[in-house]
Specification:
This protein is mainly beta and 213 residues long. The protein has one domain (45-212): Beta Barrel (Porin), CATH 2.40.160. It has one helix at 2-28; strands at residues 45-60, 66-84, 87-106, 110-128, 133-150, 153-173, 176-191, 197-212. Strands 1-2-3-4-5-6-7-8 form an eight-stranded antiparallel barrel. The termini are far apart.
Length: 213
């Protein structure tokens, strides 16, 4: 009887020891760390910023002749983006001080000049979001002040036209984004002295810095 009791106690102790060893083994098994996945950047929201750059173009005079244009501009921007999947739809407006000008011979003996002294655009944008980078196309309404001169007689006019172009924007830090874009601007024909007109067409390359709200 004593031997049976000792055998039972031994078996019980062996079972407890085996269970404890198995539990320790399970606890000691390493666990895989949860992999961190950075959130995908979302472009939706309002923004404001500054933009500036340079332009070149051409002005044709109705009495004959033309002038080459060049100069710079700087101004501000307001806009809103709405993202659906990878597509980003936006509306943007900007207004800039400009000094894009040039002169040339016109008619038989005259000298003509054209200067764009301020420029604004209101455009739609459609972009393709690649996380923090977004190439886009854009187009819409352009308007600005055009000052033209024939033989020293000046005339100023506010003209409306169209613009179209493309660019790329990138998120750089926190709410800040930076962009580079190209725009073609056509303001039609401005009235000049003696019943003549001067056309205004320019190509712009601008850089911008925006703050997203």
């Amino acid at each position: 009887m004593k031997n049976l009791l000792l055998a039972g106690v031994g078996l019980l102790a062996l079972g407890v020891a085996s269970a404890s060893a198995a539990d320790l083994q399970r606890r000691a098994m390493p666990t895989k760390a949860i992999e961190y996945v950075a959130p995908v950047y979302n472009w939706t929201g309002f923004y404001a910023g500054i933009q500036g750059g340079g332009g070149w173009g051409r002005s044709d005079y109705s009495i004959g002749g033309s002038g080459r244009l060049n100069g710079g501009l700087i101004g501000g921007t307001l806009g809103y983006n709405w993202q659906s999947g990878p597509l980003v739809y936006g509306l943007e407006t900007d207004l800039a001080f400009a000094n894009i000008s040039g002169s040339g011979g016109c008619g038989a003996i005259f000298s003509c000049s054209t200067r764009n002294n301020w420029l604004g655009t209101t455009r739609v944008r459609v972009g393709y979001a690649m996380d923090r980078f977004m190439p886009y196309v854009t187009g819409g309404f352009a308007y600005g002040g055009v000052k033209s001169s024939v033989a020293g007689f000046d005339s100023s006019d506010t003209k409306g036209g169209w613009t179209a172009g493309a660019g790329i924007e990138a998120a750089i830090a926190g709410p800040w984004t930076a962009k580079v874009e190209y725009l073609h601007v056509d303001l039609g024909h401005a009235d000049n002295a003696f019943g003549t007109t001067a056309s205004y067409r320019s190509d712009l390359v601008r850089a911008g810095l925006n703050y997203r709200f």
